[in-house]
Amino acid sequence: MPPVSNANYAWILHMISKLDASKGIVGFLSANGALNAVGNEGVLRKEIL
After folding, report:
1. 44 CB contacts (<8 Å, ≥6 apart)?
2. Alpha carbon distance 16, 24 (integer Å)
3. Could you tell me the sign of the dihedral formed by the alpha carbons of 5, 9, 30, 18, in that order?
4. What is the pLDDT of residue 6?
5. Integer Cα distance of 27 and 42 in angstroms
6. How far apart are CA 49 and CA 47, in angstroms?
7. DSSP of the chain
8. Residue 49 near residue 41, CB atoms below 8 Å
9. Which of 9, 17, 36, 49 could form a disulfide with 2 if both were Cys (CB 3.0 to 4.6 A apart)?
10. Comparing C-alpha atoms, which of 36, 32, 30 is closest to residue 7?
């Protein structure tokens, strides 16, 4: 479960939900801090990928 104080995952999941299943492409631009994932956030990021 993502932290309540961080809406990044809501935006990412929203963009993923709008992809075309056969040929959809999406790109994400995030701050450097978004690369540091520990605990539940790290697991969530792996599941999204």
Report:
1. 1, 2, 9, 37
2. 9
3. negative
4. 73
5. 19
6. 5
7. ---TT--HHHHHHHHHHTS-TTT--------GGGG---THHHHHHHHH-
8. no
9. 9
10. 30
What is the CB neighbour count within 10 angstroms for residue 19? Answer: 11
Q: Two tokens at 42?
A: 């790290």
Residue indicated by tokens 């309540």:
4
Radius of gyration of the chain from its Cα atoms, rounded to whole angstroms: 12
Tokens standing for residue 32: 């450097």
Measured distance CA(25)–CA(12) in Å, rounded: 13
Token couple for 35? 């690369």
